[in-house]
Write a structure and sequence with these properties.
72% of the residues lie in helices and 0% in strands. The chain is built from seven helices and no strands. α2 packs across α3 and α4 runs parallel beside α7. It is mainly alpha-helical. The model has no long low-confidence stretch (mean pLDDT 91). The protein starts with 10 loop residues before the first helix and ends with a helix.
């Protein structure tokens, strides 16, 4: 018999994940692929240069962190379009929702975990980031993964 305390058994979390997907996928389906804005354009230009074999190059006098342009270049190589990154970022946002839940559960309690996951899933700003070609969703996943790893290491130490 499974423990009722496991995240995979929490129906509230599952419904929160459904909400996260709907709030991100629906605008993407309705508005489709708009033109790039600000940082998106820069990321696409750098990804184009990476795909062309020019390596990591600067843009507008700045040297950008290579992670997100490489992520876009990989999508361009695999799917023929950088816009596929928007769809994969919806999946990353689902992972982030689970990480938020996990961190809230590990550091506080189930009610905190549920509230934090719901706030992340329902945030219009964070939903926008997930369906744009901006790096926030990937870097949030990286940060929360690192925080959970630190919390787990702390728990093992004690």
């Amino acid at each position: 018999m499974r423990s009722p305390g496991r995240a995979r058994d929490d129906r509230f979390l599952w419904w929160t994940l459904v909400l996260a997907v709907v709030l991100r996928a629906l605008p993407l389906l309705v508005w489709g692929d708009g033109s790039c804005t600000r940082d998106e354009c820069t990321y696409v230009q750098i990804a184009d240069r990476l795909q062309a074999g020019r390596g990591m190059t600067g843009s507008a006098g700045w040297i950008w962190a290579p992670g997100y342009p490489a992520y876009l270049a990989l999508h361009g190589w695999l799917f023929g379009s950088y816009l596929a990154a928007r769809a994969s970022q919806i999946l990353v946002a689902v992972v982030v929702t689970v990480l938020v839940y996990g961190l809230g559960r590990r550091l506080f309690d189930r009610a905190t975990a549920r509230t934090a996951a719901l706030l992340y899933a329902a945030s219009p700003s964070l939903a926008f980031y997930a369906i744009s070609l901006w790096s926030e969703t990937l870097y949030t996943a990286t940060l929360l993964g690192a925080l959970l790893a630190l919390a787990a290491a702390r728990d093992r130490r004690t």
